[in-house]
Each structure stands twice: as structure tokens, then as C-alpha cells.
Amino acid sequence: MHAPSGRPAHAPAGTAEVVLALLRKELLVELRTLESVPGMSLFAVTIFVVFHFALNQNAVSGQEAAGILWVSLLLAAMLAINRLFVADADQGGFDGFLLAPVDRSALLVAKAIALLAYLVVLELVAVPAFGLLLLEPPLGQALPGLLAPLALADVGLAAIGTLVAALAVRTRARDLLGPLLALPLLIPVVIGAARASAPLLALAHPSSGSPRWLLIVGLYDLVFGLIAYAVFDFLLED
Amino acid sequence: MRLPGLRTLSVTTAFAFSVSLTLVFFYAPIEAEEGFVQKIFYLHVPLAIVSLSGFVLGGLLAIAHLRTGESKWDLRSYVAIHMSLIFGLGVLATGSIWARASWGHWWVWDEPTLVSFLIVFLLYATYQPLRFAIEDPERQARYASVFAIVAGAFVPLNFIAVRLSASYVHPRVLGSTSNLPGSMAFTFLVSLAAMALLYATLCSYELAAKRTRILLKARSRILGFQ
Description:
The complex is a heterodimer. Chain A is mainly α.
């Protein structure tokens, strides 16, 4: 993520230290409550089963496979995005954080890294499960090529997801607004990731596809990372 | 906005619209391939351009709100986005009619401009639910501004991404006057100006109404009505 490099004059603790402390707390809470990650993984696997019955197909390949994989990952990610700030909003985490004399963007960076970690764990479960349950070509040959789209899409999901979660969490209808805000904003990520992974999952002559799609996702990640960093402070100001 | 300004704007808009409609129906030539149906171009494309510009304008006004903290900028940003949403409904309706008339389907996925517009419209359709799900007025304004900035930046990015993803099955230049014959380009520019004036007029009316309501509320509070 875009960790700020300079140490703000008013902050006694360095931003990197604050980010690390917040990240540690975030991961510790997740380890102790197991609120997000197991649910996300289970959800993704269930979605694969639903796709099997809804499409009435035993195995998929190519663009269809890429579509199923990305829709499942996107919906599973929504679960984590919806929960990301709930404990902070309901149990006074925001108030505690605002009382500390630290850079507020540290919270954005820490939450985004935590979300990124959840997504990586989700994919460690969901991608092999997809290979096992639905994918027709062997997963082993597609996997090295899949790493780049997965990594780039995760960064985009983490940046946009954190921003949207912060926007939605203090509204009355946060469970509804989170996905409504996040899905349109994530369409460019889905376009890039699905197009980049479709040729890898093709049954005949799998190829690595055009790097153009990865470039699109990468640029989109960068721009939205910067936008999230620029506007995040205003969501905490009270 | 004081009332004389509103009157001038309204008269100018009515005049501009009558000129543009006259040009559309009596001056611009009938297009060779699509025939009379192509006239919807002079309504659809200006609607789309004005609506998208309004969304981006809403984002710029929201930046002004976050920088100054004055609620008048938030009000302007709200009105700009609200009016753009209404114009956006017009864009989707006229786009659908045009698609039906030229390609036989109410919706075509391989027209990147229309698809990106739908995505942008779906995002902005969340603006009011988000805004009115927050009770504290100060926080409501701040969160709405953050949304408006993020979404305003999303508008051009989304158009680039969708355009790159689309196959060019229907090569056609929308909104560019470079390959139009002179009389069509002129009519189009006049229609665009009339549509922009309509947007400005309707925004001014909504702003005036909102300000009057705020003023009335403040006065009745002073007088002890509740």
C-alpha cells in the first residue's frame, strides 16, 4: 500500500509504527474472533457449488471459468468489506483511535493491509477449491500465471473495499450500502482480472494473454489507492 | 440565486431550446443510413455529455466543500448530482430507444459508452441512499462529499476501462464533431448548448427552492413555530 514516507511534525509516533500497531491489533482480533476469514472461504466454496447447480455443468473453462472465479471472490470479499469497520464503529474503536495523536491515514493503510491479508487467505482456500470442484484444465498449469491478476485485483479490492467500508459503516443501512457502492467501483478491476485470467484457464492452448489487462488493473489500483488516501481523513473527522 | 437571474435563465433556455429543435427538425439533414431516427442523437448525446459533466462538477464542488467546510458548497454538489441523475435517466431511455431503432435491441452490450454510462448511473444511484442514511447533518455533508469526489474521479476511469474492454462491433463516434458534416455539427453544438442551459436553469431552480426552505425553517424557528 501507499505508506506515507514523511513523519508529520505533530505526530509523536512514526506512521509506520502506528500502521504496524494497528495491523497487529487487527490481525489479533481476527485470529481470536475468526469473524471474517473462515466465513469468506466457506462462502466462496458454497458459491462454487451453487454455480455447479445453477449452470448445470461439472467442469468449466476459459472465460466462463474466469467469470465464476471472479464473481465468487468478489462476493466473498464483500463479506469482509462489510465487517471491516463494524467493531470500530460499534465498540468505540474510532473514538479511541481519534484520541491518539497519530496520523489518521494510518488506519486506512492498516485496514487495507489487513483486508489484503484476508483476501490472500481466502484465495489460498478458494482457488484450489475451484480447481478441484469446477475447473476443467489442470490448475497447476494456470496457477503461475494467475498469481499476477490475483495479486493486482487483491490490491484494488483492498483499497476500494477499505474506502467503501469506511463510507458505509456509520450509515443506517451499512450492510446494503457497502456492496451497492463497492460493486460499481470494482467493475474495472473485474474487467481487467477476468480478461487477464480467461486465456490462462482455457482448455485448448492456454496462454498468458495480453499484459494490457494487468496494466489496467494496476493503474486503477494506483489511482484509487491515492484517492482513498486523499479523502480518508474526512471520514474520521468527528 | 435571486429571482431575476432565474427569469433570465429560463427565458434564455426556452429560446435556446426552440432554436435547437428548429435546427434539428428543419435544418439538419436526414442521415443516410439510419434516417429520421438519427435525430435522437441531438437529444441523447447532449443529455449524456451534460449529465456526466454534472457528475464531475458535483465532485469538484464537493472538493470545495471539504476544503472550506461551508455547507453552501455541499448544497451545490448535491443539486448538481441530483440533476445529473435525472438527466441520466433520460440518457438511458433515449439510448435504449436509439439502440432499439438502429440495432433492434433495447440494450446492446457492445456499445461501450452506453454500458459505462449504466455503471456510472448505478454508482450514483447510491448517492442519495448513502446520504440520507446518515442522520447528523454535518457528517452527512462530509460523507456525501467524499462519495462525490470518489465517484467523480471514477467517471472518466470507468469510461476508459469499459472502452478498452469492448470489441468495436459498431464503430461510431459519439460526441465527436470531427466526422460530422458541417450542418449536423452545428445543430449538435446548438443542442448541446441548449441542454447545458437547461441543466443550469433546473439546478438554479432547485437551489432556490432548497435555500428558501432552509430560510423558512430558520425563520419559523425564530418565531417559535415548529
